[in-house]
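Researcher: For the annotation table, I need structure tokens for Sulfonate ABC transporter, ATP-binding subunit. Please keep the output clean. Sequence:
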Amino acid sequence: MNPGVAVEVADVRRAFGSNVVLAGFDLNARPGEFVAVVGRSGSGKSTLLRLLAGLDRPDGGRVHIDGAPLRGVCPVARVVFQDGRLLPWFRVGPNVALGLSGDARGRANEMLARVGLADRASDWPAVLSGGQRQRVALARALAGEPRLLLLDEPLGSLDALTRIEMQRLIEDLWLAGRFTTVLITHDVDEAVTLADRVVLIAAGRVAGEWPVEIPRPRRRDHPDFGRLARTI
Ligand code: ADP
Ligand code: MG
């Protein structure tokens, strides 16, 4: 088992030319915590996630992982993007095994089974549904045994029913793995369904923060679910 890392983002600034996207953003996640960052389209959510993954550098402020400044690509993080980003010229199995060493390859099949696609390893990504492709993307991320899972609107292009099914899967995987998770979404219902804490980003800063105390799992079935979702 790989314990989740602590994440500390403090006073982070990032601008593209005169477009100030993050203007002193703060985010802390305890090891194993599930944090959701919600905000409108264009509010800087993906920019924040790229900083956490080490795919981009802030202009100011700090990003610390387990107490140490992040330099280069974060080795313990894996990202799932909205479009899955599977490589179309590899079948499903090799897509999941990508970047794994020889003896870790077995994990690819194990993870495909975990997301319910054990029998699709030799299919091409193109023949899968959108939901199945996102399952493969999740399997690929988890096969890397991340201690930090970064989800950038992973369910944004799915229909409502598939989205709920996938939310259940994500919760089950997180409950089993306890990797620290940062979920970026513009869907408040999704944030309340999955996260321990919901952070609202607006104008490049934290505009609000709500702990989600509705018991797990399957929060959607709880009477307080809708009330909290409407508050946020
Ligand atoms: P969100 O994910 O919340 O929709 P983004 O983080 O993708 O928002 O984008 C926030 C803002 O930053 C947008 O105005 C976008 O155009 C700008 N932006 C993001 N990445 C770049 C980049 N590489 N170069 C220039 N502008 C960028
Ligand atoms: Mg985005």
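Researcher: And a one-line annotation?
Model: Residues 45-46, 152-153 surround magnesium ion (ligand 2) (CB under 6 Å).
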